[in-house]
């Protein structure tokens, strides 16, 4: 496919046969097969073939021109239960860091806190990236913040709009969630076997495609920006954004992405409640620290760190 994409103009059947090392009849057959798969190829053998449009699909062929980093091993599926599950199986079988699992649809997409992730076909991005960070297990939650900031940066590049991050890693546009990040790992006490960073981005889902109960709090880039997103190009941006930040995080820690994370944070200065493993804490958000923990000041002035939990805004609280 790249040969036709990069040609920039028509390529004759003869030239294609030469480049592909096959007969002109074989070229004709290949064009027919590509057309059946949704590629719009204009022209005929004598006048030359031009690639006019590629199908809106996240397969290896459609993604290849958009993958600019080192992570290029893509396992693409029409339907899976959860890309997290597939990536975990690949990880256990020894797949290397940077292996990517993408699906057009998930039948059991997973969110944080055991929730479901709404995953209709052909509209959004559902991907899981296998990582093998040389970190202690306690540092792994920071990867969720790194993934959140990468998704926010990719949205800025794609749309020019300014998303907000709600700690630890929800990305919102116009106050509604468009990205969810789920980081899972397998480890021993002191050694991480693998991490699966799962990212779901609502790209071209119209509002009507969301279940009624989600419509008040979830949205998509299409709904907010009013224009369809090239899903393959966006996937390329997101993976490049994540690979760059993950590389910095591994060599210099979360502090290397903290300022960028803070620049997107919508919580700093606001009154919140955090429901965490040790109960509920209320306070005003001061920011995040160099470990990605949320820093809050309670009504009595005590400063507390929260490493895990779900935040809700608490308008009634004033300090
Ligand atoms: C959240 O609850 O905010 C996290 C949602 C994470 C969804 C993504 S979609 C790709 C990957 N596969 C899953 O089953 N979940 C994650």
Summarize the structure in words.
The protein has helices spanning 2-7, 13-20, 24-36, 60-63, 83-92, 141-159, 221-225, 231-252, 255-264, and strands spanning 40-44, 48-53, 74-80, 100-106, 125-131, 164-166, 170-173, 176-187, 192-201, 271-276, 279-288, 294-297, 303-306, 310-313. It is elongated. The mean pLDDT is 93. The strands form 3 sheets. It has a 7-stranded mixed beta sheet, with helices on both faces. The protein is an alpha+beta fold. Bound molecules: biotin.
Structural shape: elongated
Q: How would you spell out the order of helices and strands? A: HHHEEHEHEEHEEEEHHHEEEEE
Question: Portion of residues in helices?
Answer: 25-40%
Report the major sheet: 7 strands, mixed
Number of strands: 14
Content of β-strand: 25-35%
Number of helices: 9
**Which ligands accompany this protein?**
biotin
Instruction: Detail the poorly predicted runs.
Output: none
Structural class, by secondary structure, is alpha+beta
Radius of gyration: 22 Å
Short account of what is shown:
With 319 residues, this protein is of the alpha+beta class.
Any descriptors?
7-stranded mixed sheet; alpha+beta; 5-stranded antiparallel sheet; binds biotin; 319 residues; 14 strands
